[in-house]
Amino acid sequence: MYRFLLTPRWWGINLFVVLAIPFCVFMGTWQLGRFEDRVQTHDAAEKQPAPGTRPAKPIDELLPVDTVTSGRPATATGRYADQFLVPGRELDDKSGFYVLNMLRTDSGKALPVVRGWLPGKPGDTTVPAAPTGEVTVTGDLQASENAGTAGVDTADGLPDGQLGMISAASLVNLVPYDVYDAWVTLQGAGAGAEAGTGGGDKAGDALRPVPAAVAQGTGLDLKAFQNLGYTGEWFVFAGFVLFMWFRLVRREAESARDLRLGLVEDTGAGPGSEPEAGAAPESEPQPGKDTVGTGTA
Questions:
Q1: 191-227 confidence digits (pLDDT tens)
Q2: pLDDT one-digit tens code per residue, 42-88
C-alpha cells in the first residue's frame, strides 16, 4: 500500500521533510539559546554593583566598552574643541537636544563628551559655552550608538554643526583627528564634573545631565522576548511540516486502497489526459472488426 513512497515524486517530498524538520529544530534551539543568554546576562548585571557607584578610571583602561564597563565612570583630561548639537533627543518626555563637545586628549584622540541636554530645537535655544583651557572630565562611559539606538537620526541633510548619531563612524568625517569609539555623559555638569584652569559660562548650570543608558543586550527587553517567540514559531513550523507529511501520506494511501477495491476507476494518466496516438474513439467502430447487423439484408 505504501509503495508509492518510493516513487520519484515522493522521494522529493521525503527529502524536503528530512531536511526541513532538523533545520526548524536547530533554529528554534538557537533562538532559545539567545534568550537564555540574555537571561543570564541580566541576572549577572543585577548581582553587580551599580556602574555609577564604582571608582572612576582613565578612559583607556575601560575600553573597549562591553556589558561590564558600560556605565562605569571614566576620566579624561584635555581641551574642548569642536561642538555638535544632537537633535531629536528626549528627556523626561520632553523633546530637546544634546550638547556634545570633542575633548582633545594628550594622546591625540578626541573623546565625545555629552555635556548635557537642553529643551527645544538647535538654533532656537542658547547653548552655554564650554569651559576653556585644560579640563578633567568624569562621566559615565557609553558605547557608540548605532542605527537601532533610540533617538538616532540616520537621515542625511542635517545642518552644519548637528549630529544624528554619536559614534566614531559618524564623527570621523567631521573632525580632522582620531576619535574614541565611545563617549561619556557628564553627571552634574554644573556641580564639579568639569574641573580645570579655564572658566566657562555660568549658564552651563542650565544643562541637564543625560542619564547613562543600560548596555545593550543586558536587559529582558522586547527583543529578548522576541527571541522566545521565535523559538515557539520554529518548533511550530517543524510540527506543521510533519503534520502535512502524514496527511499527504494518508490521503495517498486511501486513494491507493480505493483503487484496489474498485471503488474508483483507474484513469491511467489521470483525468483530462489525451488518448494515445493511433487509438480510435470508442464511439466509432475500428477497422477489421465485425459490426452488429441492424436487421437489413
A1: 334 544 444 444 444 899 999 887 665 556 667 788 8
A2: 666 566 555 556 788 999 999 998 877 888 899 999 999 999 999 99
Query: SS3 for 59?
Result: helix
Asked which of 3-7, 156-160, 223-227 is least confident by mean pLDDT, the reply is: 3-7
Q: What is the pLDDT of residue 147?
A: 84
**Contact assessment for residue 39 and residue 111, using Cβ atoms and an 8 Å cutoff:** no
Distance CA 118, CA 87 (A): 10
Q: How far is Cα of residue 137 from the mean position of the Cα atoms in its chain?
A: 34
Show the cell assigned to 183.
563617549
C-alpha span between 91 and 211 (Å, rounded): 9
CB atoms within 10 A of CB 222: 8
- Name every residue whose Cβ is closer than 8 Å to that of residue 190 and which is 6 or more positions away in sequence: 204, 205, 207
At residue 186's C-alpha, the angle toward residues 185 and 190, to 5°, is 155
Query: Residue type for 102, please?
Result: M
Q: With CA atoms as reference, report the closest residue to 87 among 186, 153, 160.
A: 153
d(CA 191, CA 224): 38
Burial 257-284 (b: 16+ CB within 10 A, else e): eeeeeeeeeeeeeeeeeeeeeeeeeeee
What percent of the chain clears pLDDT 70, i.e. is strictly above it? 74
What is the model's pTM? 0.60
Residue given cell 542635517 in the structure block: 158
Q: Are 141 and 68 in contact (CB under 8 A)?
A: no
Tell me the CA end-to-end span of the chain in Å, nearest whole number: 55
